[in-house]
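Sanity check

After download, print the first record. It should look like this:
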Amino acid sequence: MFRKSDKTHDIHQFFKRALRNKQFVTDRSGVRTLEMLGAHFEADRPAIIGTPNPTYIARELHWYRSMSLNINDMGAPPAQWRATANAAGEINSNYGWILWHPDNHNQYDHVLQELQRNPDSRRACAVYNRPSIHLDWCERGKNDFICTNAVTYYIRAAELHTVVQMRSNDVVYGYKNDWAWQTAVVQQLCADLKTQYPEIRPGRMWWQVQNLHVYERHFDLI
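Expected structure tokens:
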């Protein structure tokens, strides 16, 4: 059923080799990065490089659940969110809004209903990105082109497996926080599916990233 894939350890080793071989790519701001194009691996750990910050993760998950599209509602937003928002604090990438809000088509409900209707389905897909993002990313001064494209869920042998497809992902901060979010969603789906499938439990998670990268400021962590 499952193809053999790299794991998070293999991804870390890739970036070690890339740093040793000085395989740098300069981004639009002039900062050196290391990158992997077309990454595919099993997300078997909560971090690839570094250690998760549970206090910040809890705060971000709480903000996602609020479905607020303003980072000021997070309380003391970190630098990466401030760089994404416009002067008013507005962003596009509150993943809770994307997943649950009626204005974005109640995607969580559709995923849940599809899995309840057909446990063998290949259609339980939450679409995070949208065609209008080509205009929305810079609306009123934003800098927020949504990083996740889509997430699809599969029930196989009483396990809920996940495939996360991303446009872009920072290995150090992005992966850790995104992994925590995707894990929380899987746990909620399992809880909501328990009535119909009492034995269901979280399964494996695969990460597919068009551009997986490490910024120069984190080279020392590699």
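If your output differs, re-run the checksum step. Summary of this record's structure: The domain at 36-213 is CATH 3.30.572.10 (Thymidylate Synthase; Chain A).
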